[in-house]
Write a structure and sequence with these properties.
Layout (H helix, E strand, L loop, with lengths): L1 H11 L2 E8 L6 H11 L6 E8 L6 H11 L3 E6 L5 H11 L4 E4 L11 H10 L3 E9 L3 H17 L8 E8 H10 L7 H8 L3 E8 L11 H14 L3 H30 L14 H34 L6 E5 L2
Parallel strand pairs: 1-2, 1-4, 2-3, 5-7
Antiparallel strand pairs: 3-8, 4-6, 5-6
The structure holds uridine-5'-diphosphate (UDP) and magnesium ion.
């Protein structure tokens, strides 16, 4: 009787995959596994934990392998080197078998205990339930940068990526299928792709805790890269700036040209002297330098896009798997 009931439950209950990318998180692995396991009682679903080791050079992989040995719910995806947070998430969700997939950080800034609220929304029929970060317990510089970034992205972006939403979310299998099979880009900005996928999406307010232990793994350089990726991957507005600036400069230039021509023919001394006396050397120098600067900036922006096209055309894998520890 009991086994029949168990069979019924396992056939009809859903399966949840929790994907966690980890880079040098040895101080957090054990606590993370414990917190996830005890919170799992509130999820109301069968689950698997997918820990992605993103090329850590500390003891993270050994601790993860240990979790895998002790707990048959744990699956470890070991990448061949450090590919970055977004790539590690991509690797994890590619291996996920669940009807819903949770993405969360490995430093316990996204509390596993909050997940049950997210899952309720998913069961209500939402395909993406993402966290809206309310209180950030990070330094003021980082908080301001994040706020600014999301607002610039919202202003420039061609799609609406929700303000202050992070990667912490639950995604339905349908969205995961789109991410895995239909969005084949190599450089991946998961929050953007997730928003692009559409379906029914909802934000849930969630306080961002402070890091359980260890140092932050996102260096300033990595964070800046993420921000630039986010903007350039979802907006062609920066390219359009050159067109707008072109018009902005060309129209007054044309008028100015006409004025100078008139001056030349009439010999008037409007704006400093007759054209024949080469007036306004300062003006000329500033004008040339300004335009040269603008051209360099626009070339830089074009270069960013060309570089991206180059990366995409090469089709190098987003991540390379060294080994998968599964049961
Ligand atoms: N992470 C990763 N690869 C990296 C950098 C970070 O997998 O190259 C992981 C890290 O271990 C953590 C998550 O991404 O689980 C978020 O990183 P972190 O806490 O350093 O950044 P935050 O989002 O808090 O600024
Ligand atoms: Mg963190």
């Amino acid at each position: 009787m009991v086994s029949k009931f168990y069979l019924w439950v396992t056939i009809f209950s859903n399966m949840l995959s929790v994907v966690v990318p980890l880079y040098n998180e040895e101080e957090n692995v054990v606590q993370l596994h414990q917190r996830l396991t005890s919170a799992s009682d509130t999820w109301g679903e069968d689950y698997e934990l997918i820990f992605v080791n993103d090329g850590s050079y500390d003891n993270t992989i050994e601790l993860l392998k240990d979790c895998h040995r002790k707990d048959n719910k744990v699956k470890v995806v070991d990448l061949s080197r450090n590919f970055g947070h977004q790539a590690a998430i991509s690797a994890g969700i590619k291996c996920a078998k669940g009807d819903a997939v949770v993405v969360m950080d490995g430093d316990l800034q996204d509390p596993p205990e909050e997940l049950s609220r997210f899952l309720d929304k998913w069961r209500e029929g939402y395909h993406v339930v993402y966290a809206i970060r309310t209180k950030r317990k990070e330094n003021i510089f980082k908080r301001i940068s994040y706020k600014l970034f999301y607002r610039i992205l919202a202003f420039l972006g061609d799609i609406d990526i929700p303000l202050d939403s992070g990667d912490f979310c639950v995604m339905d299998k349908r969205v995961i299928n789109v991410l895995n099979n239909e969005m084949i880009e190599v450089q991946r900005f998961i929050r953007g792709l997730r928003a692009y996928a559409g379906f029914r999406q909802i934000g849930v307010k969630s306080e961002r805790a402070s890091r359980a232990a260890g140092e932050v793994k996102y260096t300033f350089k990595k964070l800046l890269k993420l921000a630039i990726d986010g903007i350039l991957d979802f907006s062609s507005f920066p390219l359009r700036i050159s067109t707008y600036l072109g018009f902005l400069i060309a129209i007054p230039s044309f008028i100015f040209g006409v004025v100078i021509l008139i001056q030349k023919f009439t010999g008037s001394t409007f704006l400093g002297g007759a054209a024949s006396e080469t007036p306004g050397l300062t003006f000329l120098t500033i004008g040339v330098l300004f335009l040269f600067g603008l051209i360099m900036i626009m070339l830089g922006i074009m270069g960013e896009y060309v570089g991206r096209i180059y990366m995409e055309v090469k089709r190098r894998p987003t991540y390379i798997i060294n080994e998968i520890y599964d049961h």
